[in-house]
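Continuing from the previous page...

OK, I double-checked the sequence for Large ribosomal RNA subunit accumulation protein YceD against my notes and this is the correct one:
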Amino acid sequence: MSANTFPAQIEPFKWAEQGFKWSGQLPLSRFVRIAREAVGSIDDQLINIDCKLSMDAYHRIVWLDGHVETKVPMECQRCLETVEIELVSDFHLALVDDESLIERLDEDADFIVLGESEATTKGSYDAPATADLLALIEDELLLLMPLSPKHDVCEHKHQPAQEEVVEEKRDNPFEVLAALKGKLN
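Thanks. Re-ran it with the corrected sequence; updated structure tokens here:
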């Protein structure tokens, strides 16, 4: 599939039965929340994606497995220059349409409950559960983005130069009190 045929909305259960797989590259600009954090031009930035859907033996839980990687230009919080932040994620997400299925998952398994918001907005509870594949992948990458991006080593050129601090000798307040006490006695 090409980048133009990447499916944004999927029906996980139907597509898992068909053995959905997708591998390719998408422009970083398609991931709006990540693009907002980027600095400079991201026109040439790409995200490499490999993903597939599979179903458990009971046909009630769909697994989204994937590997994504990209580099996002962000502003270094030390020197205010651009720093390339590498984002690499291997994920294994359970997609369920019923919260009662969550107890069947391992306690450390990541999961998404599908259908709650879609059913209320469509007005029909019989509508098939859909998922925004682009948003699911973007969520995985957002979890990796640092709150305060920094170079491993950089110059603090936007901070004032550190001047030598001349320490002045101060009297110990207890010594002063002891001297006063000695004068009174």
